[in-house]
Design brief:
Elements: E1 22-27, E2 33-38, E3 42-47, E4 58-62, E5 68-73, E6 80-85, E7 89-94, E8 99-105, E9 110-115, E10 121-126, E11 130-135, E12 140-146, E13 151-156, E14 162-167, E15 171-176, E16 182-187, E17 193-198, E18 204-209, E19 214-218, E20 223-228, E21 235-240, E22 246-251, E23 256-260
Antiparallel strand pairs: 1-2, 2-3, 3-4, 5-6, 6-7, 7-8, 9-10, 10-11, 11-12, 13-14, 14-15, 15-16, 17-18, 18-19, 19-20, 21-22, 22-23
Protein name: THO complex subunit 3
Keywords: Repeat, WD repeat
Pfam families: Beta-prop_THOC3 (PF25174)
Length: about 260
């Protein structure tokens, strides 16, 4: 079965530019640019040619004074990117010029950032388990919520009506948006849930956990459909491909597991 996967003949390419560890990577909505955020206090945007092997054009986004821990692209604009940093600021950038267009100073060291699917709001999580929602147009906070439990990653569903939090308790908390009223608590894993990804079609979400498992959930029914067990260490990051048919997950070892959600 694995021999039929479209990944078997692919080759990896390395892009060098950062001086220290990279904490976050993300593709823009058109799949033409890859952004990376680093402990070296910068983000970089790489212009990727699908079949190119020459020197890759990249642009450096400078201005943060601490690690760039997570970044995300505007889902409606292929050249706008948001970064979250330990310097307590969130910044919006234009990837064409490399200039910072908006900046907001928040209350703590920021570790998570995600766009609402319609591009109107940005959610930011910090090390103190506080959530801040920013209006993108004015770039000012419109919601703030402090949680009594460890919040590890955050995400909207594709309609923007639900907001998900993965917690250190092994649960996924589901909130209504914009009220942030609790809708459901899903007992997802036996150890802390580190990461979450929403499939781009809106059918499923996937959760990665410290128990080394990845679980796949049906959004409409809030039921776990499958569990993937290939990894042996805590799962730190997961991502769907653009069709929602594959999940890539990575743990604290040297492996990235890519699995079809349609495989039996």
């Amino acid at each position: 079965m694995e021999a039929t996967l479209p990944f078997k003949n692919l080759h990896s390419r390395e892009y060098q530019g950062h001086k220290k560890k990279v904490h976050s990577v993300a593709w823009n909505c058109s799949g033409t640019k890859l952004a990376s955020g680093s402990v070296d206090q910068t983000a970089r945007v790489w212009h990727i040619e699908p079949h190119g092997h020459g020197k890759v054009k990249d642009i450096e986004l400078k201005g943060h004074t601490d690690s760039v821990d997570q970044l995300c692209w505007d889902p409606k604009h292929a050249d706008l990117i948001a970064t979250a940093s330990g310097d307590k600021t969130v910044r919006l950038w234009d990837a064409r010029s490399g200039k910072c267009s908006q900046q907001a100073e928040l209350s703590g060291e920021n570790i998570n950032i995600t766009y609402k699917p319609d591009g109107t709001h940005v959610a930011v999580g910090n090390r103190d388990d506080e959530l801040t929602i920013l209006d993108v147009r004015k770039f000012r906070p419109i919601h703030k919520r402090k949680f009594s439990y460890e919040v590890n990653e955050i995400a909207w569903n594709m309609t923007g009506e639900m907001f998900f939090l993965t917690t250190g308790n092994g649960t996924v908390e589901v909130l209504a948006y914009p009220s942030l009223r609790p809708l459901d608590t899903l007992m997802a894993h036996t150890a802390g849930c580190y990461c979450i990804a929403i499939d781009p079609i809106g059918r499923y979400f996937a959760v990665g956990s410290a128990d080394s498992l990845v679980s796949l959930w049906d959004i409409s029914q809030m039921l776990c459909e499958r569990t993937f067990t290939k990894l042996e260490w805590p799962v730190r990051t997961i991502s769907f491909n653009y069709t929602g048919d594959y999940i890539a997950s990575a743990s604290e070892d040297l492996f990235i597991d890519i699995v079809s959600i349609r495989m039996t």
